[in-house]
Design brief:
It is a multi-pass membrane protein. The chain has 778 residues and is of the alpha+beta class. It is built from 18 helices and 37 strands.
C-alpha cells in the first residue's frame, strides 16, 4: 500500500469516528490543532485504516466539512511519513507559518520538515569515511531555506494562492490585498476578474494598472501612481525520487530552490549520485546539478528555483574512489567517467607538507581479486581511475639526507647541510664560526652512524686538526661533532666563606682572587668580627701518604680591606672562617613577670648571670608572691626549678644560668588546695598549715571504691609533680604545699577470661594435693 493511500485512510478515520473514541467527543468537537495528536494515536490510526477503505473525494470533502485546512492535511502526511521511516518526531520547521518581525512576505502552506539522517557515531578515523558531499545534507545548522525577505524577484511567475499587494498613492490612497484564485484570477472591487496565472509579476502589474485606470482617473493623467508587489507566496509540491534518503513529495515555498528540496529529503543516499542530479519539468529534463561545483567552487548557478510539480531525480552513482594518507581531505569521492588521479587529487585538496610524492599505491578490484598498483604521480598525473579504487599517499621518511651537526664550544653550534661548502670536519668547524677560546682542544668526539645505525665514537685531536698536523676527515650524513669546553670537563670551582661576614656562602673562584676580594663579595665584616683570627682551610694535593689532608693557614688583615697590604692568594675550593671578638655578644634579654617589684625585660649582663641575679635586679619578690609556684619557660617549654632553693642558696644547682629568651613567672600566693578524681566530693578547699594529706582527702569525702590509692599523686604550683610511695604496705603521701592539686586515679579492673579462671582453680587444686602429700609423709 502506498504512503498516499495510507494517509487518506488515516485521515478519514480521524475525521469520522476514531477521535470520537480516543477523546470521548463527537466529531463536531474534534481538536482544532493537529499538533496535539501523539505518535501513538497516529500509529493506532494506521492499524485502523488497514481495515477500512475510502475514496480520496470523500476524504477531502470530510476534511473541509470539519474545518481542517490544507496545511493540517500536509502535517498529517508528514507525521505518517516520519512514522513509516522510523524517525523521531521533532518540532516542525515551518518557515511559511513563522511570524517574524518586519517580515513583509509569507509563504502559504508548509515547508515540509526534513527527516533527520542517522549518522553512525562508531566511525573510525581513517577506517570508515563518508562520501564527500554528504556532510552538507547532514549539517543541522544548514537548511538552504528560501529567503522570504527579499524584494519581489524579477520574472516571478504567479499562480494560485499567491497574494498581491496593490498600493495607489498620490492625492488619494487605496490599498488592496488580493489572492490569486484556483482559476488563476484576482478580484478588485467591482471589476471583472483579472487573469494573472502564468504571468510574471511585471506582466501582471501592467494588466492590473490598466484595469485600475477605469476606477481611478488619476492613473491616466499621472496624478496617481500604482504599485504591485508580491505579498504571501504560495506553496508548491515537488517530488524527489531515486537514490535519496527520504523520497517523496514535499510541500515547499514557491521561492524554494533545488538545494532546499534536496536538504529536506536528506540528500542522496549511499548509492545516490552527487554529480548528476536531474530536474524534470513537464516530463522534460531542464537542469543537471553537480553538488561538487558548489562544494569546491562555491557556485550556485545550477541551484534553480523550483516550479510546482517539478521532479528531482537522484540516479545511481557510476564511480566512487577512496583516497587516504597525506592529502588534505581524506574521503570517498564520486568521479565522472573521464576523471583521473589528478582530478581526484584536486578534490582531496592536494598533498600535505609531509606527503611522499614519488609513488602512490592503489588497491584495485579485478574480476576475481584485488591488485596493488604503484605509479609515479609526477610522471603520470593522468593515471586512470576505476570504480572502487583505494588510493594511499604515504609519508616522507623522518630523516635527513644531508644533515650534519656540531655542538658545544663553537661560536655557532647547530645543524648544517652537507654539500659542496661543507664536506670535511674542518669545513664544518669553520661554518660554525670556529672554536671558542674555552674549547678543550685535546679531544673531541665525532659520533657517526654505522651501516646498521649503531653509533660509533671517533676521537679527534682538534689542536692538531686545526694546525694541519693530521689529515682532515670527510663527513658523512648524520655525523655529529661534540666539542667540550674547559668548564664542562672540570668540577665547578667555588670559594666558601663562613662566620662573621654579612653574606656567608659560596662564591665562584677567579684567578688572582684574595681573601679581601671574597670578604668584599660577602658584604664585608659584621660589627663583632675580628680580622686578626681569619683561617683558610685548603685542600692538600699530594699523592704521597701524609697525616694532613687539609692545610690550615692563619691570616691577619685590616678591617678596612686595604688592597695595599699583603695577603695570600686563594686557591679553588678554599674555605674561609672569620671569627667574632672574644667578648663580643649581641644583647640577650630575659623577661620577669608577676609578683616582683619591677617586672619587665632585662638584658643579661654576663654569661655567669643566674636566676637569683635577675630577680634581685627586678627589685626582689613582693609580699604576696608565691616563690614555690614560680615557673621558668625556656624556648616556650616549662622547666621545673625549685626557686625557693635558688634564692636561698645561689650556688645550688637549681639556680640556673640565664639564656636568651628565658621567661620567669612569679605568681601570687595560691591559698587553696584542689582535690579531684576518685573522691566522693571533688572540691577545692582553703589551705590549712596544720592539715595533713589525709585531712585534705577527708575534706573531699574520702576515696571512692574505685580509687587507685597507691597511684595518688599531686601537682604543685610550679608545675612539678610527686607521687604516693609504699613501703611494706605503708603509704607515704606527698608533701602538702599551698596551691597544689591532688589527683586520685581510677583503678582499672582487669576481668579474667573463663580459661584463666579454670587455670587458676586447677592450680589451687594441684597445690592442695601436693601439700596434703607432704603432710602425710612428714
Amino acid at each position: 500500500m502506498t504512503s498516499s493511500k495510507i494517509f487518506y485512510k488515516v485521515l478519514i478515520i480521524f475525521l469520522f469516528g476514531f477521535f470520537e473514541v480516543a477523546y470521548s467527543q463527537t466529531p463536531t468537537n474534534l481538536p482544532s490543532n493537529v499538533d496535539n495528536i501523539s505518535d501513538k494515536q497516529i500509529e493506532a490510526f494506521l492499524k485502523e485504516a488497514e481495515a477500512k477503505g475510502f475514496s480520496e473525494a470523500q476524504i477531502e470533502a470530510a476534511a473541509l466539512a470539519n474545518g481542517y485546512s490544507a496545511q493540517d492535511i500536509a502535517k498529517i502526511r508528514e507525521r505518517i511519513n516520519r512514522l513509516k521511516t522510523g524517525t523521531t518526531e521533532v518540532k516542525a520547521n515551518t518557515v511559511g507559518t513563522a511570524k517574524l518581525e518586519n517580515v513583509t512576505r509569507e509563504q502559504i502552506g508548509e515547508v515540509a520538515e526534513r527527516t533527520p539522517i542517522a549518522v553512525s557515531d562508531k566511525q573510525e578515523v581513517g577506517k570508515k569515511l563518508e562520501t564527500f558531499g554528504s556532510q552538507i545534507f547532514n549539517n543541522k545548522s544548514l537548511t538552504f531555506e528560501p529567503n522570504l525577505r527579499i524584494p519581489t524577484p524579477k520574472g516571478y511567475i504567479l499562480g494560485p494562492d499567491d497574494e498581491l499587494k496593490i498600493d495607489i498613492t498620490g492625492y488619494a490612497y487605496q490599498h488592496y490585498d488580493v489572492k490569486v484564485s484556483p482559476e488563476g484570477t484576482i478580484k478588485i472591487e467591482n471589476l471583472s476578474p483579472i487573469y494573472v496565472n502564468g504571468n510574471t509579476i511585471e506582466q501582471a502589474k501592467i494588466k492590473i494598472i490598466e484595469r485600475l485606470k477605469t476606477l481611478f482617473a488619476g492613473l491616466q493623467n499621472g496624478r496617481l501612481t500604482a504599485d504591485v508587489t508580491l505579498g504571501s507566496v504560495r506553496s508548491i509540491k515537488v517530488t524527489l525520487v531515486g537514490e535519496v534518503n527520504n523520497p517523496g513529495t514535499y510541500t515547499v515555498s514557491s521561492l524554494a530552490s533545488a538545494f532546499n528540496a534536496l536538504y529536506l529529503s536528506g540528500g542522496p543516499n549511499n548509492n545516490g549520485s552527487f554529480r548528476n542530479i536531474q530536474i524534470f519539468r513537464n516530463n522534460t529534463l531542464i537542469k543537471k546539478i553537480d553538488v561538487y561545483d558548489f562544494l569546491l567552487k562555491g557556485t550556485l548557478e545550477d541551484n534553480i528555483t523550483l516550479f510546482d510539480q517539478d521532479v528531482i531525480l537522484v540516479p545511481l552513482f557510476k564511480k566512487k574512489v577512496r583516497i587516504e594518507g597525506e592529502v588534505k581531505r581524506n574521503g570517498i569521492f564520486e568521479l565522472n567517467e573521464d576523471d583521473d588521479f589528478n582530478t581526484l587529487l584536486n578534490y582531496a585538496g592536494g598533498y600535505t607538507e609531509q606527503a611522499y610524492t614519488s609513488t602512490v599505491n592503489v588497491h584495485r578490484n579485478t574480476k576475481t581479486e584485488k591488485r596493488l598498483q604503484t605509479f609515479d604521480p609526477v610522471a603520470n598525473p593522468g593515471f586512470p581511475t576505476q570504480n572502487g579504487d583505494q588510493f594511499y599517499v604515504g609519508t616522507i621518511l623522518d630523516r635527513f639526507e644531508n644533515k650534519v651537526e656540531i655542538r658545544g664550544a663553537v661560536f655557532r653550534p647547530g645543524e648544517f647541510a652537507l654539500g659542496d661548502k661543507i664536506k670535511t670536519l674542518k669545513q664544518l668547524i669553520e661554518s660554525a664560526q670556529g672554536l671558542r677560546e674555552d674549547a678543550y682542544l685535546s679531544r673531541a668526539i665525532l659520533v657517526r652512524e654505522q651501516e646498521n645505525l649503531d653509533p660509533m665514537y671517533m676521537p679527534i685531536d682538534l689542536s692538531k686538526l686545526m694546525k694541519g698536523e693530521i689529515p682532515d676527515i670527510e663527513l658523512k650524513r648524520q655525523d655529529q661533532l661534540l666539542v667540550k669546553s674547559l668548564v664542562e670537563i672540570r668540577q665547578e670551582r667555588k670559594i666558601d666563606i663562613e662566620g662573621a661576614v654579612n653574606n656567608p656562602g659560596n662564591y665562584s673562584y677567579a684567578e688572582n682572587m684574595s681573601i679581601r676580594d671574597v670578604i668584599l663579595l660577602a658584604g664585608g665584616f659584621t660589627d663583632g668580627a675580628t680580622s686578626k683570627r681569619i683561617e683558610v682551610a685548603r685542600r692538600v694535593y699530594n699523592d704521597e701518604s701524609t697525616e694532613k689532608s687539609v692545610e690550615i693557614i692563619a691570616v691577619n688583615i685590616s678591617k678596612d680591606l686595604n688592597p695595599a697590604e699583603g695577603g695570600i692568594k686563594l686557591m679553588p675550593f678554599d674555605k674561609i672562617f672569620v671569627r667574632n671578638l672574644p667578648n663580643y655578644e649581641v644583647q640577650q634579654t630575659v623577661i620577669v613577670q608577676g609578683e616582683v617589684n619591677y617586672p619587665g625585660a632585662y638584658t643579661i649582663e654576663s654569661k655567669s648571670e643566674r636566676l637569683s641575679d635577675v630577680i634581685d635586679r627586678a627589685g626582689g619578690l613582693r609580699p604576696e608572691s608565691s616563690i614555690s609556684g614560680a615557673k621558668l619557660y625556656r624556648d616556650e617549654k616549662l622547666i621545673f626549678v625549685d626557686f625557693d632553693k635558688a634564692l636561698k642558696n645561689k650556688k645550688t644547682a637549681s639556680n640556673l644560668f640565664l639564656e636568651n629568651g628565658d621567661r620567669i613567672v612569679i605568681p601570687k600566693e595560691k591559698q587553696t588546695v584542689s582535690i579531684s578524681g576518685q573522691v566522693l566530693n571533688p572540691t577545692t578547699v582553703a589551705y590549712q598549715p596544720n592539715f595533713s594529706f589525709g585531712d585534705y582527702i577527708a575534706q573531699a569525702g574520702g576515696f571512692t571504691d574505685e580509687a587507685f590509692i597507691r597511684k595518688t599523686y599531686v601537682q604543685y604550683a610550679n608545675g612539678s609533680t610527686d607521687r604516693t610511695r609504699n613501703f611494706f604496705g605503708i603509704k607515704v603521701y606527698p608533701k602538702v604545699q599551698q596551691g597544689m592539686s591532688i589527683q586520685v586515679p581510677v583503678r582499672t579492673k582487669v576481668r579474667m577470661t573463663s580459661a584463666e579462671r579454670i587455670a587458676i582453680g586447677t592450680g589451687f587444686v594441684s597445690l592442695s594435693a601436693v601439700l596434703l602429700t607432704l603432710v602425710r609423709l612428714l
